[in-house]
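Hey, I'm writing a tutorial for new members on how sequence and structure tokens pair up, and I'd like a real worked example in the thread rather than a made-up one. If someone can provide the structure for the chain below, I'll link this post from the tutorial.
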Amino acid sequence: MKKIKNGFIVKNGNELEKVTIYVENGKIKYVMPGDDSSFETDEEIDAKCGIIFSGFIDPHVHFDDPGFTQREDFETGTRSAAVGGITTIIDMPCTSIPPVINGENFGYKLSVVEKKAYVDFAFWGGVTPSQVDSGEYKTTLKELKERGIVGVKFYTISGMELYPRMPVPQMHKAFEFLKELNLVCGVHAEDFYLVDFYSNLLKDSGRKDPESWFEGRVYEAEAKAIWSVLGIADKVGNKLHIVHLSSKEGLNAVRWGKEHGIDITTETCPQYLLFTVDDLKKIGPILKTAPPVRREEDRLALWEGVQNGWIDFIATDHAAGVFPEEKSKDSIWDSYAGIPGTQLLASEILTFGYHTGRLTLEQIQKLLSENAAKRYGLYPDKGSLFIGTDADFTVVDINKEWTVDASKLESKGKYSPLNGKKLKGKVIKTIVRGEVVFDEEKGITGEKGYGKIVRSKL
């Protein structure tokens, strides 16, 4: 049995309680108040007066493995997660070859990545329009459900040949079947027709500056696409989730859905909470994401949504480009859309959420751990501090100040819009099923292949 000492857990708001946690066989055995020595232990882990959160979860990452490993792979991606205090990641189905659209592809991906993982992981599943048209989707989605996917990813706009956008008729059919399977339908919501027309109009006019990316990904496109999928979900009654919410008007649509009984959740990302189009104009391709960062009123509205519970959790949409080649093109249209975010997530939310008074520590625990685990059927093994659940902990020194050096990120993408910025709050230990996989003083202490797949209980 192991003992985690000198740590504090979050009670209510910002209230803390000193505890001693005992771990046996990777599970939480006891949580005792104060300094406790009731049980004999073989090993002691010193939390150094840090706050012990239930292990943080990043429910939206693209680790590109197999298929696009020049950008990222499961080794570098999960090392990045470990340093960032993330004990579980959920990988998207679309940025790997082959995409995870049937049981065979799921098994192949698992066989490739499980030997590389430093932290635990789950998979999203996928479906394509051609599968719906052929009727194959009912078989493949059942296969994926049996293998434990957390949900199924849809795009209303897509630049991926192997994972095209889903038109409304096919989406309606897929939503109906996924309701039967009790799986979440996650949607990248930007209206194809608006974005396609205006992006091409700007390109044809010779615009290639960073602001043209913002203008081409038309502001109204997000809300329009959300209203479309809300219309389907309202009729079908399925579980709907809007990924990487970026706009005030998109949030208004989500709120309407919640207020009218639709089973809808949403996430936002640090880039939309911290940056605006004015930053995009200054920083350029480094800050290029899809959807793009928006206006100041959107940034403030998203913070309000996070504070009030309209936004259910925070994810990164971690997507590293080959750096510097893919993030330094002369034309913004030719630069890769994506940033590596997993390693900085916890510190960003502590710095700009907790230390600004926007969020309590209790809210952060829900936004970065509990809420995603509940939505995707991983709770209570993940996202809780209950007796008998996985001993996953993120230990944080909430007052430690440090400066981001993007060249030292574990991701293959050695870039960040926060490079050179000072943050306050740092992960000092990451513990996965009772094993310390990252220690601030020692670095990565876990072993490649220790991370295990987690299957949804939905």
